[in-house]
Design goal:
This protein has helices at residues 5-40, 49-65, 72-89, 104-118, 139-142, 161-173, 188-191, 204-214, 234-243, 255-270, 284-296, 310-317, 333-340, 360-367, 381-403, 413-430, 444-451, 453-470, 494-509, 537-553, and strands spanning 153-157, 177-180, 196-200, 225-229, 247-250, 276-280, 300-304, 321-325, 327-328, 331-332, 351-355, 373-376, 435-441, 476-481, 484-489, 513-515, 518-520, 524-530, 558-561. With 565 residues, it is α/β, with parallel strands linked by helices.
Length: 565
């Protein structure tokens, strides 16, 4: 039986906490030595700049890291003393004077501060409250997991008989699992199988209250709730939103829009927010702590402590976001951020500062040199994870805008071609069998000419939605141009690909589109080819295109496999 992940992360963090304590003992001994050196001199002896700077840097590190490892009193006291020394560290040193210019009163205050710093070692014996999640409060560590469409279970409740029959048939055709049930009669275990509830405006209050009771008011566990309503003014929408509705649709329901809404709402609730994070912090224990916590939350993390390696690490690791310490010995975090931006490739990389600096003006000045956000140490592990999730999600959103077609959300022409080449290289390297398919809507010009381009766009979006729902999460889908689509099916034979595409052709031909009271259906032609049978991905794509042409010549509405003559 495998080890419980929560126990595993707890062991890692406990080990890092012991490592921190060992280093902190040595640093606190250094503070004691500085205090003894200063108090051992006569009262007229001027303070050495290096002594004060050394004490300040040690206190700064403890202020930023002690709380993370459970030593909250030590961190708070180190921060208080650090702030008292900070004005002296900002004194102009351009004249090369090794001694600080202070009044007798300022000298005494500084000496008192250093003496107090020298006594901080006793705080290592305070009761430690390590920020390690227990099994009952570690949801942020577990992460959420996206659902394949066949696992999206839609419950229809409180709708008219006609609406329920229509929605059950139509949504099933999109690949959803659909049932008609009374939410108020479900057990706790049954309720947890629901991904989405669709109900009427009249029953919204009852259904929403039932969901609150079933899930104990936990909004993160409740399935999204779609309301089918009649009214559409601001006041009516406000009332529905206040009663718990997450979306509103009016009859007659546009099934394509409803299917997209279900997928979006379920995806937003269940998606895994992850990504690649590069951490640069000269405090190795703290960097490792952050790495362990973020990896447990589902991120891919690389932690480094040497600023001189950052450019090579960026090029090799290619992170979604970067966490950067502000003070790293002789190196400045803002300066490192600035030099990273020299390279156009990293201009859009989200950089988040990690620092115990609390001065808002200093934070703004630092951000002006190339960063996007400022997180103040110490921070809770859950806060760190949430901040990383938000930033990674936003970075992925921006990237999606660059590579996705605005109408369908599918990969653009150039990017799906890149994916075809990547999968071809993978087939050659691993001796796998994969398929590329070229799809084209039949008689699509007639749809645009007779029903208008708006209806044409609806048909294109409907096919894109169907493909996303019926294919695997590992399959790649792109809009090749106009009404043409390309699909890559990894680890799939041509016979398996033909079977899958035939199912999609049948499902799509069953969909009805309405324009000004006129209903129409559209069919689909597909040509497929084996990627491993060709010298390049583009050759395989051309073969699939040729098979598509043969399908068109043979009568459309079906699938043809490319066979070399």
């Amino acid at each position: 039986m495998g080890k419980d992940p929560t126990t595993d992360i707890a062991d890692k963090l406990a080990h890092l906490r012991l490592s921190f304590r060992g280093k902190a003992e040595g640093e606190l001994d250094q503070l004691s030595e500085v205090a003894s050196k200063v108090t051992g001199g006569n009262q007229k002896q001027r303070l050495l700049r290096e002594d004060v700077m050394s004490a300040y840097q040690l206190l700064h590190r403890l202020a930023g890291s002690a709380g993370t490892f459970g030593y909250t009193m030590l961190g708070a006291e180190a921060r208080r003393l650090e702030q008292r020394l900070k004005p002296l560290t900002e004194q102009d040193a351009s004249n090369g004077d090794t001694k600080l210019v202070v009044s007798a009163e300022e000298r005494q205050k500084t000496v008192d501060t250093l003496v107090q710093a020298g006594r901080l070692r006793a705080l290592l014996d305070e009761p430690v409250v390590p920020p390690i999640p227990s099994a009952s409060n570690s949801e942020w560590l577990k992460g959420n997991h996206g659902l394949p469409v066949s696992d999206i279970h839609v419950v229809l409740c409180g709708l008219s008989e006609g609406s329920q029959v229509f929605l059950e048939y139509a949504l099933s055709n999109y690949g959803f699992s659909v049932s008609r049930q009374e939410v108020t009669a479900l057990s706790f275990s049954q309720a947890h199988l629901m991904s989405m509830v669709v109900t009427s405006e009249d029953r919204l209050s009852d259904v929403s209250s039932a969901l609150d009771s079933l899930f104990g008011g936990d909004e993160s566990l409740k399935p999204p709730l779609i309301c089918v309503g009649r009214s559409d003014d601001f006041r009516a929408r406000y009332v529905l939103a206040d009663k718990g509705a997450d979306a509103l649709f009016h009859e007659p329901i546009d099934i394509t829009m409803l299917a997209e809404g279900i997928e979006r709402l379920v995806s937003e609730q269940s998606r895994t927010v992850s990504g690649k994070i590069l951490i640069l912090d000269d405090d190795e224990d703290l960097a490792e702590h952050y790495r362990a916590v973020l990896e447990a939350a589902g991120f891919i993390v690389r932690a480094i402590s040497d600023p001189e390696t950052v450019l090579s690490e960026l090029s090799e690791f290619f992170p979604d976001i970067m966490l950067l310490d502000v003070l790293m010995g002789e190196y400045s975090g803002p300066t490192v951020a600035k030099l990273i931006r020299f390279d156009p490739e990293w201009v859009s990389l989200p950089i988040i500062y990690l620092s115990s600096e609390q001065d808002k003006q200093v934070q703004l000045d630092a951000m002006a040199k190339g960063a996007d956000e400022f997180l103040t140490k110490p921070m809770s592990d859950s806060h760190l994870v949430r901040a990383a999730q938000i930033r990674c999600y936003r970075a992925r959103q921006l990237n999606e805008l660059l590579i996705r077609d605005s109408l369908t959300g599918l990969l653009k022409h150039s990017f799906i071609k890149q994916e075809v080449e990547k999968e071809h290289a993978r087939c050659k390297r691993l001796s796998h069998c994969s398929v590329v398919a070229m799809l084209d809507l039949d008689h699509f010009k007639k749809v645009n000419d007779q029903h208008g381009h708006r209806t044409g766009d609806v048909v294109i979006k409907a096919l894109a939605s169907l493909l996303k729902r019926r294919l695997r999460s590992t399959d790649l889908i792109g809009r090749y141009g106009g009404e043409e689509f390309v699909v890559v099916l990894p680890e799939c034979t041509t016979q398996e690909g033909q079977s899958v595409m035939n199912q999609i052709c049948h499902a799509f031909s069953d969909q009805l589109f309405t324009n000004n009271g006129v209903s129409l259906s559209v069919t689909l032609s597909v040509g497929i080819a084996s990627l491993s049978s060709f010298g390049s991905g583009s050759d395989a794509l051309n073969a699939a295109d040729q098979a598509l042409y043969e399908r068109k010549e043979a009568g459309r509405n079906g699938v043809t496999i490319f066979h070399q003559g």
